[in-house]
Structure formats: structure tokens, C-alpha cells
Here is the input.
Amino acid sequence: MQVHLRRQKAQALLAKVIFVVENEALAFQQGKLFAKKLPAYRTKVFTGSVQRDKQQYLWDFLASRDIFVVTAQVLVNALKTGQIQSLTQFSLIVFDECHNSNKQHRYNEIMWKYIEMKLQPGTDVAGLPQVVGLTTSLGVGGSTAWEAGVKHMKNILANMDAKFLCTVRNPVNKEELKKRTNCPIEEPVPVPRRAHDRFAEAVMAVVKQIDSHILESCDILDDATIATCRIPLAIFGTEGYLLWNADFVNETIHGLQFDLLRMILNLCRRHLEAYNNALMIHKDARIIDAIMILEDFMQEFREVPEHVETYARLINFYDGMMFSECFDDEPENPKLVKMGQILQDVLVADSTSRGIISVKTRELAKALVSWINETDNLKILHASEFVGQNVATSKGGMTKCKQKDALEYFKGGRHKVIIATSVAEEGLDIHKCNLVIRYEHVTNESVRRQSIGRVQSDFSRYLVISEEGSWILDKEEENHRCEELMNQIVPHLQAFIDDHVNLWENELLKIQTEMKEERDREKERRRLNMVNQVEFQCLNCSAFICRSDDIKCIMGVHHIITDPDADERLRLERDAPYFVEPEGLEYGGQVYCANVSCQLKLGVICTFFKYKYIDFPLISLKAFRVVNPDGTGKSYKV
Here is the structure.
């Protein structure tokens, strides 16, 4: 960046660098580093909270700063609203962790603005900003096949409009890099499952009761449709059930013509989701954590008027289980026992050590924090969670201040262990960290490499803890093979690009043109999806809420109902805003179906506070059934 700014300024050319990161923690971390290392240049950090809390906006500082460190969403929003008219207002765009530039990622939203300019006839390509992508691992798209890995890398390069693929190649520099890189001990840790699991047995007994109730209610349907309503007991309590459940809602519930039956199935589906979530937490944490999930769900559910027999029956199923069973004497989860031993040996025994436990969900992060802090020999670690800000704190999210405090306390040693979701994990760059545990959670080869990179101390360990025979351990081994394949492909692809510059540029243009054509087709499909006049009904009770032309898309992602008469069919509970957009929007309060026998949550309240505080229902499309003019129903495809 320093070389670029010097060159641009020496030639009296535009000299503006924008450094794009995934999350707020990284933005402040990098901004602080640039201010220290590049004191001759003016650096400014912009995140959603900076714009909301300080009323300081990216576009207001374009003339007075040299380096901008921004979260990707800030730049996406500024481009959508036109506050940043074009990426040509910058001379250099740097993407941190550019391997994320794939599919619908925010990095791609930004780069497709760039590529669309590039592909426009008559565009002076020399006038476009320089683009640099940084990553420790391009990845191979999860494939161990050479051709698929090469294609994945080429697509990432095309999304970044990369003419070159640069790595450390000089032998002297390679040796220097090795001296600064720690190689932790990598170890899979298989753990036996519970020998006897009374809680899981009790939950499955309730699930079978719900399945029988569904079967009784579906006697008016044909055999083929009944078969699609049966609960797949073999995969209940796993992520596989979540996939089945999504198809069940979209393909079966939405298409049923019987309103009462649709309500019954939807009520059963919601309860089954709660039991499935509880079993998933129970599998990885304590029984008490699983019960808390069910209690929270049932408490909310008890507030719904019992005008339908199914409401009372489902509550009775749960109450019966809790009344007849006692789980206080159940043995501790073997995986927690094993992890407790590791934390005791590595972190408790060494006052200078730090550890990061990576998990998939906020719920599990919260459960593990409670477990550590309530366990006598581990509470000295003062565990803290580190999760994203994309949901309200009441739903498990973290505020910016809490994130900042957690990081500072971690660095200082007040928190010796952090339990982080992967969405927040990239913000953790702690020199003293000597233990990383991926707990029942692996994703791809790029994330694997990043996790290993978090372990920066001498004599450090990188562990994957999972149940014996689990696909998790197989996936981690596959990720290791993918990483080895990537290391083989990179020099091959570099040689191809270096030796065939013109051929690569032509291939790059071909890939980008094909991607643009696909994006154009997708845009047209979405446009046609909203052209046909359809009704939006409450998924639970089939009450009419609005028509498709009453729904408008804002910020490119949110859907609000603009028909004022819809308020008569909705119940709005106003509350303090939990999130504020710098563009003049507040989100707070809840939107429910007004049908007294339903009360399904349909969304939140969106307030345009720059325009006399006008409220609009911001809806969750998955809570609606879309009905065509011929009466057939379906789910809404965004």
C-alpha cells in the first residue's frame, strides 16, 4: 500500500486505498496496525457501528483520508445507495481473506460492480482501480480432484480479476518465512459416545408421539403425500434432519390445500425443530443446556392461545416427558470430560497460555461457556464467547463493545479461553494462543489452514474433537488432503499464468463473461418471480396478509410490506431498536399474525427514522405461504 500511495502521489494521480475485511473486529485490528506502520498516511476505519454511533460516514471522508479500512457490508451498502458512486473513487482495493470471494459473498457483490464496469464496451480498463486479494489459502472447493481444484482457483481469480497469482517463491524468503511460522501438533481426538442416553431416549419417545399425531391428522391425504409427512427418525437430532425439514416445509406444507392440516403440520414441525436443536446441543454439551433450549421454546409457545387441539397436545407431550423423567443422575458427556482434561493440562497448568474453541452455533458457544465457568477445576479460565453481531443480543449475538472487551480480556489473560463461532473466528489474532480446538465442527480446507494459523506460540496444539466414527474426523482428513492438493496446484497455476499471459487474460475474460450471463439470468428469474400477482398468507393459519405488489425490497436484502391496510392483519409489538442502519433504518419490535388462534411471528418492525419515523413490517419470507391465482401454494424463492 505504501509503494502504491507513493507512486500515485508522485505522478499526481488518485491515491486512495480501501482495505476490505469481513468483520468489525478485523477492521479495528487492521486499522490500528496501518496507523502504526504507515504514520505518514491518514487511516480511517468504517464499520456499521462507527457510522451508527459516531454518525461518521465513509463518503464524507473520501477527500481527507488516504487509507480506509471498512467492513464489506459498509462498502456494499454505500454502493447500493449511491453514496459511493463508483469503485473508481479508489485507486487500490485490497480484500482480506479473498478466498471468500465466491458465490453470493459480499466480496463478490463488490467485485461484480468492478467486473460489470470492465465488461462494458468502451471502458478504459486503465482507469479502474488496482485489485489485490490476500489469503493464506485459496482452497480447492472441497474437492480432491485436480481438475475441480484448478477450476475453483480460476473462479476465485476471475472474481478478483487477478492477472497474477503471487506467493513467496524466493528460497531466501521462504527460509525466513519458515522461521516465523509455527507448526503445531495436529491431532484428531475421537471420543466414545454416551454408553446409555436416557435423555435422547425420552426425546425420541416424544418425537414418535408427534409422528403418530401427524399420521392421525393426515388420514385425509393419499398414501404418497402421507409418506412425505413421516418423520425420518433415523436422522433426527442431526443436521440431516434440518435439511429434510426445510424440504418438508417447502415441498409439502406449502402445497397442502387443507388449512387446518397445514396449521397442524406447521405446529408439529416447529416443535420438532426445538427437539432436534435440543438433541444436537445435548450431543455436544450438557443435558441442562438442552433442557434450557426446550424450556425457552415451550415458554414462548405456552403464550399462544390454545384454540387448536394440537397446541395443547404438543405441550402435554413435553410436560409428560419432564414429569416422568429425571436426568440429574445422568453421567457427564464423554466429550466434555475429554475436553476438560485437555483444558486442564494445557491452559490451567500454564498461566501464560491461551486457547480458542471453535464451534458451529451460538447456542453451543453459550453452553460451553456456561460449562467451563460452572466447572470447579476449569472456572479459573474465565471462558468467554466470541460470536457475530448479526443478530440481537437476546438471540445470542454480541455488541461491538462486548466483542472488543472479549478480545482485550483474552489478550490480557483475564479470559484464557474463547469459544468462537467461525463467523467471528477470523477476528482472533492472538500471539500467545497455543491451543486451538475445533469442537465437532470442521468446514473446508481454507478454514482449516486459518485455524492452524491461529496457533502462534511455541509447542502449540491443533485438535479436532469429535465422536468416534463421526464424519467430522473423516472430513478433517479430507480437508488435509485438499490442502496438500492446493499446494500442488498453486505452483502449476502460477507457471501457466506466467508463461501464457495473453491466454490467461482471454480465459479470465471468458469466465467473467459466463458468470455475468448467469447473474443476468438469475436477476431475470427473480424479477419474473415478483411480476405474477400472488397472495402472501401466514404459513401457520393461512390468513391473508398481503399481495406480492405490496412487498418492496430495501437494502437489496430486506422485504417490507408497504400496504397500510396490512396492519389490520398483523399485530405489531414495538420495542427499543436492537440494530440501526446509517441509511436511516432501525430494526426493533416484533410482527405477529393477528389471528388470535395463531400469533405466528412473521418478522420485525423496520422504522424509517429519517422520514418521520414511519414503521413498516419487515417480514421473514420463510414464515409465509405464497398462493397463486389458481389456489396452489408454494414457498417463496428469493
Remarks:
- The mean pLDDT is 88.
